[in-house]
Write a structure and sequence with these properties.
mainly beta, 9 strands, globular
């Protein structure tokens, strides 16, 4: 079974930008956002995939990903999504043995920047860079599935 163990943080400064290894634009839309799971189609560069994630609140959730043709994902995003598409740039920042994924949102969520780190286990220690701010792992407002219905610009 796939398991995602992820912690989310706001940013205390823009100092992380000096450490970005690479960035990619990403769009995603939800095909199902009701019940115990969310199902989304994602496109980043020349890759597309379906992502199925449990909707439990917290840092450990079931997650499954399956590659699909980009043309299929584009059609799903155009015709099958339950709300607007999330548009963001994901910045990759390797730091102290972990990979930080920093999502800078666009459109209705412009101005929101969230740092995520995936861990091997729930209690795994990791360094907290000085640019890291408040942890929001348990705040559902920061989940992408929530940002579709309640965009950051409306907070």
């Amino acid at each position: 079974m796939g398991k995602e163990i992820e912690r989310k943080f706001l940013l205390a400064s823009d100092a992380w930008r000096d450490e970005v290894e690479r960035s990619e634009r990403m769009v995603q839309g939800y095909l199902n956002d009701q019940g115990p799971v969310s199902v989304r189609a994602r496109i980043a560069g020349s890759r597309a995939w379906l992502n199925i994630k449990s909707r439990t609140l917290g840092i450990s959730r079931d997650e499954f990903e399956y590659d699909i043709p980009v043309a299929d994902a584009e059609r799903m995003l155009d015709h099958l999504t339950t709300g607007p598409v999330i548009d963001k740039t994901r910045h990759f920042v390797p730091r102290d043995g972990v990979l930080w994924e920093i999502d800078e949102f666009h459109g209705e969520n412009d101005g929101l920047i969230v740092a995520e780190v995936e861990l091997e286990h729930v209690d795994q220690p990791f360094a907290h860079p000085a640019w890291l701010g408040e942890e929001v792992s348990h705040d559902a407002r920061y989940y992408n599935v929530s940002l579709v219905k309640n965009p950051y610009s409306q907070w």
